[in-house]
Structures are given as C-alpha cells and as structure tokens.
Design goal:
This protein has 405 residues and is an alpha+beta fold. The chain is built from eleven helices and 20 strands.
C-alpha cells in the first residue's frame, strides 16, 4: 500500500467537509497498525493471551496454507474500548480550558442494590458504557429513557437520523440494532476496528492447587466430606481439597479420543505464540456516514459533519492496549499511516491524520459540528432502571441475533 501512495493530504476543514458529504470523495479511511507484545521486539515471536469464548476457547481460524490466525480483540470489544472516550470533555487545543462535552452524558441509575450493598449506595452506568448502546436491554428497562429512544428509532427507520443523533450519536458511530425495541432498525458501524494475530501456535497451561487437606486430622476430613456430600458441593471448589487445573470446564473436556484419554484440545489454555504479525485494522466507513440523513439537505450536512468528527476522534484515539491479563501490547511504529480509499483505481492518497495539527483541526471541527445538536440534547440525563420493565423483556420475542457483532 505504501508504494502506491504518492500524495500526502493535510487535514483541513475543507477536506473534512468533503469526506462528510462529497459523493465523489473517498469511500473510506483505513489504518493498519502493527502491534507488538511488550515482551518482544519487532521480528521476534511473542506470547500473548487472546480472549476465550464458551466451548471453543480461543477463536482461531486455519487458512488454506496451514497458518492459523487468532482473534485478539473483536469488533465489538474494540468499539466498547473506544466509545467511553466521549465521557471526557474536549477542547480545540486539548487543554481543559473551555472544554465541552461532545455528546449527551446520559446516566442510568441501577437502583440501591440493598441486598448486595449494605451501605445503600446507588450504582449507575453511563450510556457510553453499555455494550449495545441505545439498543441495550438496560435502556429498554428504563421507562423514561425508552420514551426518548422509541420515537428516535422510528424516525431513523423513516430516514431521519436527527433525533437519535441528538440523543446518542455514538450509537450511529459504532453501529446500532434496535432488536429489542419496536422499530427493528439496524445501522452499520461508521468506525470499525479489529485486532488479529497471524501465524500462531496454541500453548497450554497446567497448575496444581495444594490445600490444607493433608494437615487436617481424620475426624476433620470426615466431617468435611459429610458436609460437602450433604450440601452437594466439591471440597476442591471451596478450597478445602487439592485440585489440579489441567482441563477446561467445557463440552470439549468430556470428549474422549480413541484410547480413552481426555481430549487434548480441552486442556487449559496458556496463550499463543505469535510468529508473524499482530495487526489492528481501523476503517472509517464514509459511505455509511453519507447514508445517514436528516429532514433536509441542510440537516443532513449537519448530521454528517457531527458524526464524522466523532468518528475521527474515536478512530485516531490511542486506545489502551492492555487488553487483558497476559495481553499487553504496544504500537510498533512512531506514526500511523492512514489512507483515503477511492471508489475506483489505485490508492494514491495518504492522509496526515496522526499529526497534532490534524488532531487540533478535528477537535475544532467536531466542537463546531456539535453546536447545533447541544440545544436538542435531553434536559433530563439521569434515568432509573425498572426491574418490572426488565422482566417484560424476558417474555418478549426478539429478532434473531445476526452473525455480525
């Protein structure tokens, strides 16, 4: 890709406006970031821990050439890491002076939780922390919040993104599907990011927990055995008996190979050895952005500019790469190489999105674009979770879950 790039595009207001609305402009902006384990230099193999999923363990695909590719951070997980950046205030020069919110700061009160919280402290969640954003089940369980979002989704279904843009613009930036609401409306992500590791080998782990069991006398051991039997629990689960950790508690663990031994595929996972590269791919889908419109060309332009600014702030944000225990990464390159992807032909435009000048321009652009929406933000930002409404969701038939996150 770098060999074909011949032009460096500086980020200006004119360029941003073209990206937002010009149908002849680029269809996407794309970044491929090389990442490294903190324990390895470039070119060296490194060991990291991918996420584990029920029954399958690591998500690893085998290619036709025999190499294996591991999912290190999914599209949904990446979105959930980026979205909370909008809980912070922004200013054009990056300083706290005159900083402003870029999106509404909606909070959901989950209740006092008296059973688990003797001090009666209330727990709350920001809408920006919810995995499914404005389509999350928690939103459907807040009557006052549901009243706001139901008409917004209905307007979106009719082609007007304005109401949802004023309530929860990040739902449009990171994608949303109103599967639990009445509209069923679904919109794709403007910002999409994923991390994969190439040419990997799976490693395994084993552990042995030694309890105080052998130090107990026979009478104590017998009493504990009887109590465990009566309560139908295992002593090892309560830390009162020795326990090996060799196989995962999964359906695979009960499968047997021909000689009757436990399935080796069900062994406790110990990370992966990455022999090739770890890459984070980030795409800003400008076609998805331009397909979001308002009630007039003027309103459409406002929506597109606002969402483009938010999308670029999220896409260029240097996220925390401590993804989980055993998976701490770092950026391999000093700078990011962004490219504008044309509708046709060779990729010839490299975009200067990573410079401080570009970041300042994007912040100012977004602050200006947010101004028309601030007056439409909801006045009431705190909403209460209702357990009775949550129970109703259990009886409601929802649409089939899509393959895409």
């Amino acid at each position: 890709m770098t060999a074909a790039a011949t032009t460096l595009i500086d980020v200006t207001v004119e360029v941003l406006e073209k990206w937002a609305a010009d149908l002849t402009g680029p269809v996407a902006l794309h970044l491929r970031q090389r990442l490294l384990p903190v324990t390895a230099n470039d070119g060296e193999p490194g060991i990291i821990y991918p996420p584990t999923y029920a029954d399958i363990g690591y998500s690893i695909d085998k290619l036709s050439d025999g190499k294996r590719v591991a999912l290190i951070d999914s599209v949904g997980s990446q979105a959930n890491r980026m979205e909370p950046i909008f809980k912070e205030k922004y200013s054009a020069d990056g300083t706290p002076n005159n900083a402003m919110w870029l999106v509404p700061q909606i909070e959901i009160d989950l209740g006092s939780g008296k059973a688990k919280n003797p001090e009666n402290q209330q727990e709350s969640r920001s809408l920006l922390d919810l995995a499914h954003r404005s389509a999350d089940a928690v939103v459907q369980s807040c009557p006052t919040l549901k009243e706001l979002f139901e008409p917004a989704f209905k307007s979106l279904r009719r082609g007007d993104a304005g109401p949802l843009c004023a309530l929860a613009p990040t739902s449009l930036v990171f994608g949303v599907w109103d599967s639990r609401g009445g509209s069923g409306e679904k919109r794709p992500r403007i910002v999409r990011s994923v991390i994969r590791a190439w040419d990997v080998d799976v490693l395994h782990s084993a552990a042995q927990f030694n309890s105080v069991w052998k130090a107990l006398d026979e009478d104590q051991q017998e009493q504990l055995k009887k109590e465990a039997k009566a309560k139908k629990v295992k002593l090892s689960e309560k830390g009162l008996a020795d326990a090996p950790s060799v196989h995962r508690k999964t359906k695979l663990a009960i499968l047997k190979v021909q000689d009757g031994a436990p399935n080796p595929e069900a062994r406790v996972l110990g990370g992966i050895l990455v022999r090739d590269r770890i890459e984070r791919e980030v795409t800003v889908n400008l076609l998805a952005l331009r397909n979001l419109r308002g009630t007039s060309p003027e309103e459409s332009a406002k929506i597109q500019k606002y969402l483009l600014g938010l999308a670029l702030l999220a896409a260029t944000h240097e996220i925390d790469l401590f993804l989980r225990e055993g998976c701490q990464l770092r950026y391999a390159a000093a700078d990011d190489d962004w490219y504008a992807i044309p509708r046709r032909g060779t990729i010839t435009e490299k975009v200067n999105l990573g410079s401080e000048e570009a970041r300042r321009a994007i912040r100012q652009f977004t602050l200006d674009a947010a101004r028309p929406f601030r007056q439409k933000w909801p006045r009431e930002l705190e909403h209460k979770f209702d357990i009775a409404e949550a129970k109703k969701l259990l009886a409601k038939k929802e649409e089939e879950v899509p393959d895409e996150e």
